[in-house]
Protein backbone atom coordinates (compact mmCIF):
# COMPACT_ATOMS: atom_id res chain seq x y z
CA UNK A 1 0.00 0.00 0.00
CA UNK A 2 1.24 3.53 -0.80
CA UNK A 3 2.83 5.25 2.15
CA UNK A 4 4.06 2.00 3.74
CA UNK A 5 7.58 0.64 3.65
CA UNK A 6 7.92 -2.82 2.15
CA UNK A 7 7.71 -5.67 4.60
CA UNK A 8 7.27 -3.48 7.66
CA UNK A 9 3.61 -2.52 7.55
CA UNK A 10 4.52 0.88 8.95
CA UNK A 11 3.77 4.14 7.15
CA UNK A 12 6.68 5.96 5.59
CA UNK A 13 7.77 8.75 7.94
CA UNK A 14 7.83 11.31 5.12
CA UNK A 15 4.24 10.54 4.12
CA UNK A 16 2.71 10.95 7.56
CA UNK A 17 0.34 13.93 7.84
CA UNK A 18 1.00 14.66 4.18
CA UNK A 19 -1.92 17.10 3.84
CA UNK A 20 -0.72 19.13 6.81
CA UNK A 21 2.80 19.28 5.37
CA UNK A 22 1.52 20.45 1.99
CA UNK A 23 -0.66 23.10 3.68
CA UNK A 24 2.38 24.41 5.58
CA UNK A 25 4.42 25.02 2.42
CA UNK A 26 3.11 28.60 1.83
CA UNK A 27 3.88 29.51 5.45
CA UNK A 28 7.40 28.07 5.19
CA UNK A 29 8.04 29.89 1.91
CA UNK A 30 6.76 33.14 3.44
CA UNK A 31 9.05 32.73 6.45
CA UNK A 32 12.08 31.91 4.32
CA UNK A 33 11.59 34.47 1.55
CA UNK A 34 10.12 37.41 3.46
CA UNK A 35 11.41 37.14 7.02
CA UNK A 36 14.75 35.40 6.53
CA UNK A 37 15.36 37.10 3.18
CA UNK A 38 14.44 40.52 4.57
CA UNK A 39 16.70 39.97 7.58
CA UNK A 40 19.70 39.05 5.41
CA UNK A 41 18.97 42.01 3.12
CA UNK A 42 18.88 44.40 6.08
CA UNK A 43 22.15 43.09 7.53
CA UNK A 44 23.93 43.28 4.15
CA UNK A 45 22.84 46.85 3.48
CA UNK A 46 23.84 47.92 6.99
CA UNK A 47 27.43 47.76 5.69
CA UNK A 48 26.70 50.25 2.87
CA UNK A 49 26.36 54.03 2.71
CA UNK A 50 22.77 53.86 1.41
CA UNK A 51 20.93 57.16 1.75
CA UNK A 52 17.52 57.77 0.18
CA UNK A 53 17.66 54.50 -1.79
CA UNK A 54 19.56 51.28 -1.03
CA UNK A 55 22.77 50.81 -2.99
CA UNK A 56 25.57 48.27 -2.73
CA UNK A 57 28.37 50.69 -1.88
CA UNK A 58 30.12 48.96 1.00
CA UNK A 59 31.80 51.02 3.71
CA UNK A 60 32.62 48.23 6.17
CA UNK A 61 31.78 49.00 9.80
CA UNK A 62 31.48 52.77 9.29
CA UNK A 63 27.73 52.80 9.95
CA UNK A 64 28.20 50.91 13.22
CA UNK A 65 31.01 53.22 14.32
CA UNK A 66 28.80 56.25 13.64
CA UNK A 67 25.92 54.52 15.42
CA UNK A 68 27.80 53.90 18.66
CA UNK A 69 29.35 57.38 18.53
CA UNK A 70 25.92 59.06 18.29
CA UNK A 71 24.67 60.48 21.62
CA UNK A 72 21.08 59.95 20.51
CA UNK A 73 21.64 56.21 20.02
CA UNK A 74 23.44 55.87 23.36
CA UNK A 75 20.56 57.60 25.12
CA UNK A 76 18.05 55.34 23.38
CA UNK A 77 19.96 52.22 24.47
CA UNK A 78 20.17 53.53 28.04
CA UNK A 79 16.43 54.26 28.06
CA UNK A 80 15.68 50.80 26.69
CA UNK A 81 17.80 49.19 29.40
CA UNK A 82 16.05 51.13 32.19
CA UNK A 83 12.61 50.56 30.68
CA UNK A 84 13.34 46.88 30.05
CA UNK A 85 14.67 46.01 33.50
CA UNK A 86 11.85 47.71 35.39
CA UNK A 87 9.22 46.47 32.95
CA UNK A 88 10.34 42.86 33.38
CA UNK A 89 10.50 43.07 37.16
CA UNK A 90 7.23 44.89 37.78
CA UNK A 91 5.25 43.09 35.05
CA UNK A 92 6.14 39.69 36.49
CA UNK A 93 5.75 40.77 40.11
CA UNK A 94 2.43 42.60 39.73
CA UNK A 95 1.05 40.03 37.28
CA UNK A 96 1.89 37.09 39.53
CA UNK A 97 0.51 38.76 42.68
CA UNK A 98 -2.75 39.62 40.90
CA UNK A 99 -2.99 36.07 39.54
CA UNK A 100 -2.38 34.61 43.01
CA UNK A 101 -5.15 36.79 44.44
CA UNK A 102 -7.46 35.89 41.57
CA UNK A 103 -6.74 32.20 42.14
CA UNK A 104 -8.40 32.34 45.56
CA UNK A 105 -11.79 31.78 43.89
CA UNK A 106 -12.99 35.30 44.67
CA UNK A 107 -16.48 36.50 43.85
CA UNK A 108 -17.00 38.25 40.49
CA UNK A 109 -13.72 36.78 39.25
CA UNK A 110 -14.77 37.02 35.61
CA UNK A 111 -15.60 40.70 36.02
CA UNK A 112 -12.29 41.52 37.68
CA UNK A 113 -10.37 39.50 35.10
CA UNK A 114 -12.09 41.36 32.28
CA UNK A 115 -11.35 44.73 33.87
CA UNK A 116 -7.69 43.85 34.37
CA UNK A 117 -7.30 42.55 30.81
CA UNK A 118 -9.23 45.38 29.15
CA UNK A 119 -6.23 47.79 28.81
CA UNK A 120 -4.42 45.17 26.72
CA UNK A 121 -7.21 45.41 24.14
CA UNK A 122 -6.32 49.06 23.52
CA UNK A 123 -3.66 50.06 21.02
CA UNK A 124 -0.40 51.51 22.34
CA UNK A 125 -1.23 54.82 20.67
CA UNK A 126 -4.52 55.08 22.57
CA UNK A 127 -2.81 54.07 25.83
CA UNK A 128 -0.07 56.64 25.24
CA UNK A 129 -2.55 59.44 24.58
CA UNK A 130 -4.61 58.52 27.65
CA UNK A 131 -1.57 58.60 29.92
CA UNK A 132 -0.25 61.73 28.27
CA UNK A 133 -3.46 63.39 29.44
CA UNK A 134 -3.34 61.80 32.91
CA UNK A 135 0.27 62.89 33.44
CA UNK A 136 -0.25 66.41 32.12
CA UNK A 137 0.45 68.78 35.06
CA UNK A 138 -2.23 71.27 33.96
CA UNK A 139 -5.27 68.98 34.02
CA UNK A 140 -4.01 65.50 34.97
CA UNK A 141 -3.19 63.78 38.25
CA UNK A 142 -1.08 66.69 39.52
CA UNK A 143 -3.89 69.18 38.92
CA UNK A 144 -6.48 66.96 40.65
CA UNK A 145 -4.32 66.44 43.75
CA UNK A 146 -3.50 70.13 44.00
CA UNK A 147 -7.20 70.99 43.77
CA UNK A 148 -7.71 68.82 46.88
CA UNK A 149 -5.39 71.05 48.91
CA UNK A 150 -1.87 69.67 48.33
CA UNK A 151 -0.55 72.73 46.52
CA UNK A 152 3.08 71.58 46.60
CA UNK A 153 2.36 68.18 45.01
CA UNK A 154 4.34 67.63 41.82
CA UNK A 155 3.86 64.74 39.42
CA UNK A 156 4.92 65.55 35.84
CA UNK A 157 7.27 62.77 34.69
CA UNK A 158 6.67 63.39 30.99
CA UNK A 159 8.01 66.94 31.34
CA UNK A 160 11.09 66.03 33.37
CA UNK A 161 14.01 64.75 31.28
CA UNK A 162 15.47 62.84 34.24
CA UNK A 163 12.41 60.66 34.86
CA UNK A 164 10.49 60.77 31.57
CA UNK A 165 11.20 57.10 30.82
CA UNK A 166 9.40 56.17 34.05
CA UNK A 167 6.29 57.99 32.86
CA UNK A 168 6.33 55.79 29.76
CA UNK A 169 6.89 52.76 31.98
CA UNK A 170 3.72 53.54 33.99
CA UNK A 171 1.62 53.45 30.81
CA UNK A 172 3.27 50.21 29.66
CA UNK A 173 2.62 48.47 32.98
CA UNK A 174 -1.00 49.63 33.00
CA UNK A 175 -1.54 48.09 29.58
CA UNK A 176 0.52 44.90 29.78
CA UNK A 177 0.13 43.69 33.36
CA UNK A 178 -3.34 42.24 32.68
CA UNK A 179 -1.96 39.88 30.04
CA UNK A 180 0.80 38.71 32.39
CA UNK A 181 -1.84 38.14 35.07
CA UNK A 182 -3.88 35.92 32.72
CA UNK A 183 -0.82 33.89 31.71
CA UNK A 184 0.15 33.40 35.35
CA UNK A 185 -3.43 32.54 36.31
CA UNK A 186 -3.53 29.87 33.61
CA UNK A 187 -0.32 28.43 35.06
CA UNK A 188 -1.68 28.48 38.61
CA UNK A 189 -4.89 26.78 37.53
CA UNK A 190 -2.75 24.00 36.08
CA UNK A 191 -1.26 23.17 39.50
CA UNK A 192 -2.73 19.97 40.95
CA UNK A 193 -5.03 20.66 43.88
CA UNK A 194 -3.40 17.79 45.78
CA UNK A 195 -0.19 19.81 46.03
CA UNK A 196 -2.01 22.58 47.91
CA UNK A 197 -3.68 20.04 50.18
CA UNK A 198 -0.34 18.36 50.96
CA UNK A 199 1.26 21.72 51.76
CA UNK A 200 -1.58 22.58 54.15
CA UNK A 201 -1.35 19.19 55.84
CA UNK A 202 2.41 19.62 56.33
CA UNK A 203 1.84 23.09 57.77
CA UNK A 204 3.86 24.88 55.07
CA UNK A 205 3.05 28.62 54.93
CA UNK A 206 1.36 29.72 51.74
CA UNK A 207 4.19 32.08 50.73
CA UNK A 208 6.71 29.24 51.02
CA UNK A 209 4.45 27.01 48.93
CA UNK A 210 4.39 29.64 46.19
CA UNK A 211 8.15 30.29 46.24
CA UNK A 212 9.51 26.76 46.64
CA UNK A 213 6.80 24.60 45.04
CA UNK A 214 4.45 26.51 42.74
CA UNK A 215 6.85 28.88 40.98
CA UNK A 216 9.35 26.12 40.04
CA UNK A 217 6.45 24.11 38.61
CA UNK A 218 5.46 27.13 36.48
CA UNK A 219 8.88 27.36 34.82
CA UNK A 220 7.44 27.05 31.30
CA UNK A 221 4.86 29.79 31.94
CA UNK A 222 7.53 32.12 33.29
CA UNK A 223 9.87 31.54 30.35
CA UNK A 224 7.08 32.14 27.81
CA UNK A 225 5.96 35.28 29.65
CA UNK A 226 9.54 36.57 29.78
CA UNK A 227 9.91 36.13 26.02
CA UNK A 228 6.61 37.93 25.34
CA UNK A 229 7.53 40.84 27.62
CA UNK A 230 11.10 41.06 26.32
CA UNK A 231 10.04 41.11 22.66
CA UNK A 232 7.62 43.93 23.44
CA UNK A 233 10.37 45.85 25.25
CA UNK A 234 12.81 45.72 22.33
CA UNK A 235 10.28 47.08 19.83
CA UNK A 236 8.66 49.72 22.06
CA UNK A 237 7.79 52.68 19.84
CA UNK A 238 4.11 53.61 19.87
CA UNK A 239 3.99 54.60 23.54
CA UNK A 240 6.99 56.91 23.17
CA UNK A 241 5.61 58.61 20.06
CA UNK A 242 2.14 59.04 21.57
CA UNK A 243 3.35 60.35 24.94
CA UNK A 244 6.50 62.36 24.28
CA UNK A 245 7.63 62.01 20.64
CA UNK A 246 11.07 61.33 22.10
CA UNK A 247 11.16 64.46 24.26
CA UNK A 248 11.89 66.50 26.22
CA UNK A 249 14.65 66.95 23.68
CA UNK A 250 15.88 63.42 23.08
CA UNK A 251 15.45 62.29 26.69
CA UNK A 252 12.94 59.53 25.90
CA UNK A 253 14.44 58.21 22.66
CA UNK A 254 14.30 54.44 22.09
CA UNK A 255 16.02 52.30 19.41
CA UNK A 256 12.85 51.65 17.38
CA UNK A 257 12.20 55.38 17.05
CA UNK A 258 15.85 55.94 16.11
CA UNK A 259 15.51 53.40 13.30
CA UNK A 260 12.27 54.93 12.02
CA UNK A 261 13.59 58.50 12.08
CA UNK A 262 16.80 57.67 10.23
CA UNK A 263 15.13 55.51 7.60
CA UNK A 264 12.09 57.66 6.80
CA UNK A 265 12.94 61.20 7.96
CA UNK A 266 16.71 61.61 7.82
CA UNK A 267 16.76 59.43 4.67
CA UNK A 268 19.85 57.58 5.86
CA UNK A 269 19.00 53.95 5.17
CA UNK A 270 22.48 52.67 6.00
CA UNK A 271 22.34 54.09 9.52
CA UNK A 272 18.78 52.84 10.00
CA UNK A 273 19.76 49.36 8.82
CA UNK A 274 22.72 49.31 11.23
CA UNK A 275 20.46 50.29 14.15
CA UNK A 276 17.84 47.70 13.20
CA UNK A 277 20.57 45.04 12.96
CA UNK A 278 21.58 45.84 16.54
CA UNK A 279 17.93 45.40 17.55
CA UNK A 280 17.92 42.08 15.69
CA UNK A 281 20.95 40.95 17.71
CA UNK A 282 19.13 41.92 20.90
CA UNK A 283 16.10 39.83 19.90
CA UNK A 284 18.39 36.90 19.05
CA UNK A 285 19.98 37.15 22.50
CA UNK A 286 16.48 36.73 23.94
CA UNK A 287 15.14 34.05 21.60
CA UNK A 288 18.16 31.72 21.40
CA UNK A 289 18.39 30.98 25.17
CA UNK A 290 14.61 30.51 25.28
CA UNK A 291 14.71 28.06 22.37
CA UNK A 292 17.58 26.19 24.02
CA UNK A 293 15.78 25.94 27.35
CA UNK A 294 12.53 24.83 25.74
CA UNK A 295 13.78 22.48 23.03
CA UNK A 296 17.44 21.80 23.82
CA UNK A 297 19.58 20.77 26.73
CA UNK A 298 17.41 22.44 29.34
CA UNK A 299 14.64 19.87 28.88
CA UNK A 300 15.05 16.41 30.32
CA UNK A 301 14.87 13.68 27.78
CA UNK A 302 12.71 10.66 28.53
Automatic annotation (TrEMBL):
Subcellular location: Cell membrane
GO cellular component: plasma membrane
Segments forming domain ABC transmembrane type-1: 77-292
Alphabetized Pfam families for the sequence: BPD_transp_1
Any coiled-coil regions, as ranges: none
InterPro entries cross-referenced by the UniProt entry: ABC_transporter_permease, MetI-like, MetI-like_sf
Annotated transmembrane regions: 25-47, 80-102, 114-134, 163-188, 209-234, 273-293
Keywords: Cell membrane, Membrane, Transmembrane, Transmembrane helix, Transport
Main location: membrane
Gene3D superfamilies (alphabetical): MetI-like (1.10.3720.10)
GO biological process, one term: transmembrane transport
Membrane protein topology class: Multi-pass membrane protein
Record family assignment: Belongs to the binding-protein-dependent transport system permease family.
Protein name, as recorded: Putative transport system permease ABC transporter protein
Amino acid sequence: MAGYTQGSGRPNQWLRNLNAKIASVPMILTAVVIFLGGTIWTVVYSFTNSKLLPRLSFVGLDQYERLWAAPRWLISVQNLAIYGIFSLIFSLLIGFVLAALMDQKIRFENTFRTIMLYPFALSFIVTGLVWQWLLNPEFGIQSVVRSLGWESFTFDPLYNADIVIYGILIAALWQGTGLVMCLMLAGLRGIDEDIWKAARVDGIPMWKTYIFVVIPMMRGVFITTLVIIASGIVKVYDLVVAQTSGGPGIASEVPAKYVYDYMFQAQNLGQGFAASTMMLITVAIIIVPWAYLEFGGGRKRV
